Hints:
Blueprint: H1 2-18, H2 27-46, E1 51-59, E2 80-81, E3 86-93, E4 98-104, H3 111-125, E5 132-136, H4 154-175, E6 179-189, E7 193-200, E8 204-210, E9 218-226, E10 231-238, E11 251-252, H5 255-268, E12 276-278, E13 284-286, H6 297-300, H7 304-321, E14 331-341, E15 359-369, E16 372-377, E17 380-381, H8 383-392, E18 397-402, E19 410-411, H9 414-419, H10 422-426, H11 433-447
Parallel strand pairs: 2-11, 4-5, 10-12, 16-18, 17-19
Antiparallel strand pairs: 1-3, 1-6, 3-4, 6-9, 7-8, 7-13, 9-10, 14-15, 15-16
Helix pairs in contact: 3-4, 5-7, 8-11
Amino acid sequence: MQEKREWSEVFRIVKERTGVFLYPKGIVTLLVIIIWFVCFSEVLIAGSDGFTVGSAKINITPKKPIPMSGYGSRKDPFKGVHDELFARAIVIGDGTRKAAIVSVDVIGLSHDAFQKVTDRIKEVSGIEPDHVLLCPAHNHGGPVTNVYNKTKSRDVEAYVAELHENIATVVKEASGRLESARIGVGRGECLMNINRRARHPQQGITLGRNPYGPCDHEVAVVLIADAQGNPVTVLFNWACHGTVMGPQNYLITGDWPGAAARFIETTMGGRVIAPVIIGASGDINAIYGPHIDFKSVYSSYSYGVDSIGMILGEEVIRVARDIPLDCTGPLRAAQRVIELPRKKQESNLKSPGTDSDDFLKVRLSVLKIGTIILAGVSGEVFTEIGMQLKDQSPYKNTFMVTHCNGSSGYLITDDAYEAGGYEARVTRVQSGAQKAIVSTLLDMINSI
């Protein structure tokens, strides 16, 4: 009798959730039960208000020498590998939907690449494109990805195709590892970044170091643990260009983002994966660099890569240790593409899929994990814009993610247009980007 009652309960639940009435006998019943279990197993794992999370990482270091990205003066293929590059993925489910966050140790991914990769992710994992955050680390020590001007080379095209497939693969692997999880968030501070818009008596604003300029030093940490409270993923957000190594370096490196992730994973041990997502840092550099190369140790401060990785990593770990795993609530996502008026003069930083005659496309993304807000912008956003969004968001734990889901180039403040400088010269849009980005993201945050 007890067994019959248990089967009756299964039949009742299936009917409520699928509208399918199960006959008590026969092969049809068995098949429907199997289908129901596959479709709703995540609900059983997560519970009514919990999360499931899976994470994975994959090596994306080029196998053949191809040109590097980040500095226009560097033309030749790379000459070796100092440290390997990775893509790290987190897949989060709430019982009804899934989302993916992917950190990639490259300079960027174009809007066209976003479309191709997210279509492939949907094929292999079922995750909708508007529930994906593709987050390049804006690493200037990696290979070209055709994010700016397309390189006509078979080896480059082969690497880019392999990179796209690897990103989809790592999401698929993370999705296949879903387990009941607990999530929490904390914040710290790292002072190893600095405003780079320096004042010069003759040249005006130039690239340098400006300790008087605005700089967001906040380190955001999202800790994900298994059901027993053991850390499995440490997602961290910090605002800084990946430019510790300069244009004379011809060794592949993940720069400080790769060093920080490596330090966290090695120090915490176990199966911890540490994806980095870059904050609003269009006008922010590391306090070290850009340096010459890894060989000129005493003249170029090449230790800066590992030094920043260690110091930032230590702060991430310190914050993670005190994070309460109390995040609850639904998983929500939204994306919008806004069009900003283009400047009349051309920029040398073009990206496939963004340009029209009069407007530039900027993709804005919001991922809400309980009360945590990740706000993505497909460009190099000035730190003041990210700080304004944090200040005006109704959610305390709001963090901007730049270079996210496409590449629209520099997106600067209105004040920067008047002051001039490198970023004002190369941005492809007119003034007004700051207001459009912040107001649209706030509307999206309030709507989901």
